[in-house]
Amino acid sequence: MNKPLLRFEQVSFRYDARAQAVLKEVTFSLPAHQVTVLFGPNGCGKTTLLYLTLGWLKAEQGSIWVEDRPLASLTRRERGRLMALVPQTEYVPFEYSVLEYILLGRAPHLPSLAEPGPEDVRIALEALERVGIAHLADHSIRTLSGGERQLVLIARALTQQPRLLLLDEPTAHLDLQNTYRLVEVVRELKRQGITVLMTSHDPQVVLALADQVVILRQGSVFRHGALDEVFTSEVLREVYSIPLQITLVEGKKTLQWL
Amino acid sequence: MGDTRALAAVQASSLHRQRMLWALGVGLLALLWISLLLGRYPSPGLLSPERLSSDELAERLVFQLRLPRLLTALLLGMSLSAAGLVFQLLFGNPLVEPGFLGVSQGAAFGAALAIVFFSSSALIVQANAAVFALAGLGFSYLLARRLRYGGWILRLILAGIAVSALFSAGVGLLKILADPLSQLPEITFWLLGGLASLTWPKFLSILPFSLLGLALLLLYRWRLNLLALNDEIAFSLGAAPHRERALVIVAAVLPTAALTSVAGMVGWVGLIIPHLARRLFGAEARFSLPGAMLIGGWFVILCDNLARTLLNGEIPLGILTSLIGAVAFLVLFGFQGKQWQQR
Asked: Exposure winner among A33, A153, B117, B176, fewest CB in 10 A?
């Protein structure tokens, strides 16, 4: 087992002092160079956990470690070079070209008032190439389809050259073909050595991508471990309280309703 | 390979936009020179350069009256357009203008207050307008912090609307209280906006604030794009969205407040010019910001030329910018609606 890139130790969080805790004493670690999926029903705290990892939300109790440093001790710029966020959706109010937009990913690498130069453009074009949309570089973002936009957001994250990629429900708005394409892209990024932490409530995506699964239920870690050990019919039946079964179809695991 | 083709396309588009900026800039210098000679002395039309060197009255007219007025018109156009573009970007809303955070109505209230209660000394009216313009921003900000409704951007917009409404009610009240023969016309003319009474001291009093604000915005122009993103996205890219937005808003309001204090309410410049700039240069602020400033300079100088030469008397500048601006708005949005979807 390789050294964890990120560790959560007894982390609790609530949005409002009077409200219920959204996350309760969450402990897990994120192995480097693997895909870890945060899985669970709607409202179980997946996205909150992702934003705690990003540092945008601050833990109420407990601590989050990046290798041997507390997450809070990273500067904004260091954090921006370490990890990149791909949000579920992003509203783009004005006409940007794809390249202009993803060049914003260079921000944590540039001094405050500097502008991106030829080297940054090269890195951005390479990121487009890696997700397979280099031909869209000079298109306006507003003319793109939902699937293409999701790939643009991933390309911007890659332009940040992060070690850790955070994906929030990346397939939530995608059709079957685009979901397949996205799964392929994430697999390829993993092969290139990027650590991935993503949220998903789609069991098919989990089965296709995850090395590790953290199953959340009502703000607590319900199960945590390697896909084969944790993601079983029994566990899923308990999480969702509906009859379902993971079966093997031509050697691949698939989820079926009963 | 696709890579090199994309790179070439990107470089070509960037070069094209740089050339457009240069053309607009050089054209603006020419426009400044022509406008300096344009007027109704000794007869409507252009003053010849020979006359300028021989006629002392012409020389005084050009250098003491027209030049400070022209330079103020230039700054006015640049400031309102830059601030409008920045506000539209920051608030993710193409319909906001630089005065909407209580700044315009605050300035109007300050000017009216000075006219009714203090004196009609130009300097006091100007200072009071500037103070209340900044107070309008301050109130909007404080109110937005206390509102319990929606996200930060929405709260700021709501607070701006509320503060503007309060100040505009205040202006109404002051109009009732004003002496209908002397003070009321003065308030009315101030609200219509214009540069007729512009002098060197007035120009010099606003110069440092406008230059400071515009310089900050220009230095920040690439990062402005970051601040247009959602808070958490901007944060993930290493920005401090709240702090940086506050800085940029102050940098945009400073020149707006300064120029409103001498020019009154000059509407539609800060709304329409940013749209035109984005049409020509795309949204990326590295190009659209300087583009908006240059187009804004063109627009206000042309409007002010009309204001002072079209009739024997002066037409208030605010009327012309609103009239021409609104027509341009209708043309951009009404008749070319289809192109909005394309690039």
From this structure: B176
| Per-residue model confidence as pLDDT tens digits over B77-129 | 999 999 999 999 998 888 888 888 999 999 999 999 999 998 768 888 889 99
Residues β-bridged to residue A167 = A86, A198
Q: What is the pLDDT of residues B42-82, one digit of tens each?
A: 788 888 888 888 888 888 889 999 999 999 999 999 999 99
Instruction: Return the residue of B nearest to A161 by Cα.
Output: B237
Of A107, A137, A139, the CB nearest to B237: A107
pTM equals: 0.91
Average pLDDT over residues B268-281: 93
Exposure pattern of A231-251 as b/e (b: 16+ CB <10 Å)? beeebbeebeeeeeebeeeee
Out of B9, B232, B284, name the one closest to residue A96 (CB): B284
- Asked whether the bond before B42 is cis by omega within 30 degrees of 0, the reply is yes
From chain A, pick out residues whose CB is under 8 angstroms from the CB of B9.
137-138
**Domain coordinates of chain A in residue numbers?**
4-257
In CATH, what number does A4-257 get? Answer: 3.40.50.300
E runs forming strands in B105-207: none
Find the closest chain B residue to A156 by CA distance. B237
pLDDT tens digits along A12-69 = 999 888 888 899 999 999 999 999 999 988 888 999 999 999 999 999 999 999 998 9
Residue A258 has pLDDT above 60, yes or no: yes
Give the whole-angstrom CA distance, residue A106 versus residue A120.
7
Cβ-Cβ contacts under 8 Å, B222 against chain A: 114-116
Residue B326 C-alpha, separation from nearest chain A C-alpha, in angstroms: 21
Best probe of the A interface among B96, B236, B287, by most A CBs < 10 A, is: B236
Q: What is the mean pLDDT of residues B321-326?
A: 92
- pLDDT at position B340 is 45
Residue B254 half-sphere exposure toward CB, CA atoms < 13 A: 19
How far is Cα B269 from Cα B322, in angstroms, rounded to an integer? 8
Tell me if A93 and B94 make a contact (CB, 8 A cut-off). yes
